[in-house]
Write a structure and sequence with these properties.
Number of strands: 4
Order of helices and strands: HHHEHEEHEH
CATH class of the largest domain: Alpha Beta
Radius of gyration: 20 Å
Structural class: alpha+beta
Low-confidence stretches: none
CATH architecture of the largest domain: 2-Layer Sandwich
Helix content: 25-40%
Distance between the termini: 25 Å
Mean pLDDT: 92
Strand order of the largest sheet: 2-3-1-4
Largest sheet: 4 strands, antiparallel
Number of helices: 6
Strand content: 15-25%
Shape: elongated
């Protein structure tokens, strides 16, 4: 996968949109010193390149009755048939990653209770051993990456 070279204005646009995906082109333009049509063109180009993959609402699952955030580390035997499909079909799964190390997958789920979590685990146990944690707090909750600082670190400028 090739890396896309971004200028300072595109980095600033991405940082702004990561924090507020509903910001208007006019407001974005005011923040970066461009006209709304110029910003529109830049954002559309970033979308076409696949840098911007979409826009979504951040939902508070606790307020919807899913207070438990759980991390399940599944060790599914190499090449286990259909485990990715099984995980994908569980609606409470909010993220699943294949990983290196002693586990094959790290899965994040939302659950209503420990009983609900146990029911979810039953769907996975036939596909491998698991180790599960319930998140008690998130000192650094999921957040947008600070692109300007991250890119500067890559180049050694930080």
């Amino acid at each position: 996968m090739s890396e896309i070279d971004l200028d300072d204005i595109n980095i600033e646009l991405l940082d702004l949109l990561q924090h507020d995906g509903r910001m208007s082109y006019r407001e974005l333009g005011e923040r970066v010193g461009l006209s709304a049509p110029a910003v529109t063109e830049r954002v559309r180009r970033l979308e076409e390149l696949g840098v911007i993959k979409g826009y979504r609402a951040v939902v508070d699952y606790e307020k919807l009755g899913f207070p438990l955030l759980c991390v399940i580390r599944l060790n599914s035997p190499r090449g286990a048939q259909g485990v990715d499909d099984i995980i994908e079909r569980i609606p409470e799964v909010i993220e699943s990653n294949r990983v290196t190390g002693s586990e094959s997958h790290v899965i994040r789920v939302r659950a209503r209770s420990t009983k609900h979590l146990e029911d979810l685990l039953h769907e996975l146990w036939s596909h491998g051993d698991s180790n599960t944690n319930i998140v008690t707090s998130s000192p650094v909750p999921r957040r947008p990456m600070d692109l300007r600082r991250a890119l500067a670190r890559r180049s050694g400028a930080d």
